[in-house]
Amino acid sequence: MEEIVLNPNERASHLPDDTKAVPLKVWVRGFCMDDCDIGTQAEIKTVSGRLAKGTVTLEKPKYNHDFGEYIEELQNIGKQAREILGVI
Predict the structure, then answer these.
(1) DSSP line for 25-69
(2) Minimal CA–CA distance to 58: which of 34, 25, 30?
(3) Whole-angstrom distance, CA of residue 75 vs CA of residue 5
(4) At residue 49, what are phi and psi to the nearest 5 degrees?
(5) Is 16 helix (H, G, I), strand (E, B) or coil?
(6) Can you give the pLDDT at residue 56?
């Protein structure tokens, strides 16, 4: 479910222009309280028992995230940190 938290006119003024030009959204997972279809407004109940209202975007959404592209400069950071801390 997708819910708009802040509309563009409610966003903080110090944000970059391209950021404050779009609404702040949150995606919430839960169970529809009534029959619903993708694209319609619905109320859901999360696993923790919180109720939320928004637009149904997916049925049974999967986790789909990563930590971005590989950053070569970070490959030795753990070793360097241990050396600095004297852990090695």
Answers:
(1) EEE---EESS---TTSEEEEE-TTS-EEEEE---SSPPP-----S
(2) 30
(3) 37
(4) 95, 0
(5) coil
(6) 95
As given in the structure block, the two tokens for residue 60 are 């049974």
User: Tokens in use for 30?
Assistant: 């839960």
How many domains does the chain divide into?
1
Provide the domain limits for residue 16: 2-85
Q: Which amino acid is at 39?
A: G
The span from the CA of 51 to the CA of 61, in Å, is 18
Confidence band, pLDDT 50/70/90 cuts, at residue 60? confident
Mark 63-80 as b/e (b = at least 16 C-beta within 10 Å): eeeeeeeeeeeeeeeeee
At 1-34, the pLDDT tens digits run: 999 999 999 999 999 999 999 999 999 999 999 9
Tell me the two tokens of residue 56: 């149904």
